Each structure stands twice: as structure tokens, then as C-alpha cells.
Amino acid sequence: MPENAGEPTTSAHTVLGRPVPMPVRIRRARAFMASYRVPAGVAQEVIAYSGLRVIQLPRDRALCTLVFVEYVDGDLGPYHEFGVAFMVRHHTAAEVGGLADLRALSGGTAGVFIHRLPVDGEFTLAAGRGIWGFPKELADFEVEHEGARRGVLRMDGKLVVDLTVRPGLRTPSRRGAGGAYDAYAHIDGVTRRTPWRMEQSGMRARVGGAELILGDHPLAAELAALELPTRAPLTSTVDRLAMIFHDAAPV
């Protein structure tokens, strides 16, 4: 799809008494993530409430990514975030299944469904839920971005995940590296699509390289039902991220 296809018009919102002009810009963030091949049937059950369909990989698998992000400089202020996301078919996809799903994934026309999104800031929680319908909720974070990256997430006093990612080989970088994506989320009975643009530098990637420990929180049990922890076919670390989030629209 064209980069700006279907993007909502520029607007402004008020969050906790503070104006938030659109689009929202993140000037600097850093992240690390691990992607897993999980049972497609279980993944589909997990996101069935959204009305979307997971991308179908060979051997009846779907792609689930766990990601820790530290927002250093952006319009919503500094905060930490943990995401559980699934690659899904675009809501306008005419062809589905098999080769069509693989083409969408490799060609960048698949969507990203954000299933869980704990954060550690009240303002970003209110903005995320009120502007985009992102399922943000408060949590406690311990994060290390130097050397082996490690993120520990706790909610309601219980451990959710303890994820360590060992950096891999530096990937070739070019000016403006990144891309445009459609991020989907669902709260209050509504699924919304948010056009999202990302530029990255200082990225390292590898096969494997992740150690995942699940705790005793219900979210950890949900991840265990996806057969996690298992070997991650892809992990990556990003030293510098810049992002733009446009207005959301119901689908």
C-alpha cells in the first residue's frame, strides 16, 4: 500500500489537560526484541476478540514478538514499554493464506496487532488508550540496555517476564532505514488501525540469542499457552529509534 494510504487527517488531542498535536513524534528510543514461531491456532484464539487473522507461517505457525522499548525523547515524555505483538493480515487483504500471507510478511504489507502493552507512565497510558486505543496498563520495569539486554516486567507484584537478549551482528544501515506499518489494537469493543512510521540505526540481529523466563502472572500463563519459552528464530537490538504515530481510525 502507498505510505500515506488511508491515513487520518492531522488533528490534536487533549490528554490529562495537556494538548497533544498529531502526529506524535518519538525522536529517540531504544529497544530489544525476540520473535517466536507459535501455534497459529492458539495465537488466533488469543486475538480472536480483534476480528483480525494471524499471518499463517509454514507448519501451522504464527509470529509473536516480545519487545522492550525505552522512550528517551518524545512528545509523550520518557517511559518504558513492553509489547506482545502478532503479525496479522491487513484488514483490507484480498488474498489470504499460504503464499499470500508469506508475500504480505516479506513485502511489508502485513499488519502488527498489539495484544498487550504495559507501560510505567500515567501520561502515556492515558494518551495510548485515549488517542490510539492501545491496551496500555501500568507495570513495573527493570531494564538494561548495555551489553546483554535484559528486561524484567512485573504487574500486580507478580513476575510476568524476564527476557535477556544477546546482541548479534550489526546489520547494514542506510539513511532512513525503517518503514511504514499499520499497527492494530483493540479496546472497548473497537479495533483501530494506526499508521506508524519507524526509522532505526545501530541495529544488531541474530538467530537465537534470547533467554525467556516466565513468571506467575496471568499474562505469563497466556504466553506459556503459546508454548513459550522456546528458541527464538530471530532476536534484535536497536540503539536508536525514531517513530511517528498518526491518528487512529476504526476498522
Mean pLDDT: 93
The amount of beta strand, in percent, is over 45%
Summed up, the helix count is: 4
Topology as a string of helices (H) and strands (E): EEEHEEHEHEEEEEEEEHEE
**How many distinct beta strands?**
16
Give the overall shape: globular
Structural class: mainly beta
Q: Could you tell me the radius of gyration in angstroms? A: 17 Å
Tell me the distance between the termini: 16 Å
Low-confidence stretches: 1-9
Most strands sheet: 7 strands, mixed, barrel
What's the arrangement of strands in the largest beta sheet? Answer: 3-4-5-6-12-13-15
Helix content estimate: 10-25%
Oligomerization: single chain
Brief summary of the model shown:
This protein is mostly beta strands. The protein has helices at residues 40-47, 98-107, 122-132, 218-225; strands spanning 12-15, 18-21, 24-39, 61-74, 79-88, 111-119, 136-138, 140-144, 149-155, 158-165, 169-170, 178-187, 190-206, 210-214, 234-245, 249-250.
Account of the 3D structure:
There is one protein chain. With 251 residues, the protein is mainly beta. Helices cover 15% and strands 51% of the residues. It contains four helices and 16 strands. The chain has helices spanning 40-47, 98-107, 122-132, 218-225; strands spanning 12-15, 18-21, 24-39, 61-74, 79-88, 111-119, 136-138, 140-144, 149-155, 158-165, 169-170, 178-187, 190-206, 210-214, 234-245, 249-250. Strand 8 and strand 9 form a beta hairpin. The longest helix has 11 residues, at 122-132.
